[in-house]
Amino acid sequence: MSGIRSFHHRDFADPARLIAARDRHGSRVSLCIPTLNEEGTIARIVEEVRHELVERHPLLEEVVVIDSGSTDRTTLLAADAGARVFAAADILPFQGHRVGKGENLWKAVFQCRGDILAFVDGDIRNFHPRFVTGTIGPLLEHPGIGYVKGYYERPLLAAEGVDPRGGGRVTEILVRPLLARFFPELVSLHQPLAGEYAARRSILEALPFPAGYGVETAHLVDVLRQFGVGSIAQTDLDERVHRNRSLADLGRMSSQILEAVFARIGDAGVEVAERPPMNTLPEYRERFPPHARSARKRA
Prior knowledge:
This protein is α/β, with parallel strands linked by helices. It has 11 helices and 12 strands.
């Protein structure tokens, strides 16, 4: 297989078919929702996932919330809705704690139990199970695929109205031009920064994780280099509505993305706070022994 394959979420709209594919491979699927002050949306996301993909259609092994230190009711509401809730700072405490989305996701690889890990952001206002089934579907039905990004239209909500395609400003202004210049194999990805994606544990455990917002761009580059472009796919999830960040927030995000990319093109003057691949940690190898993972995959 060569190039990045594209799918539509309707290709994976039958949970029973996904469950059958999961069982054929002896896989387990975890959903992780990284959070920081998401009290306005988190309960509905967890409730919808549990109703459709745990209770009605038992596709997911678990629904896990990894929280980065919320000061609102996010963790309480998530637990009440049925999620397993963990504070990122309490996971692997001997490794210390850093602040950022990448740190949260790195800790999720240790805490979640699945062979396939799916991620959705906790601020989605129009959440639908397609945000999960659309990204895990290619992994369950296509063994050669290892990392699946979602993509969608992202309307920009502003005082003067709604710009249906105005979201994703950092993607269009910074990330896609960077990929086109330095990693053209990835230029066909519509939403390289999408928070909705899924991957095999065997891939995630082999990747370093920048602690901040550079994690998603770094993942794409590292997956490309370690596993090849054919291991990457994307799924059209239609439209995603979420809170829009301030220009100051987008500036910090852009800076962290630039640092992660420059580090990967060999700029010796750039230092990025990164966590090492999880499979290099003794604590992880004890929790997920390689022989046990291989046996489950063969089952």
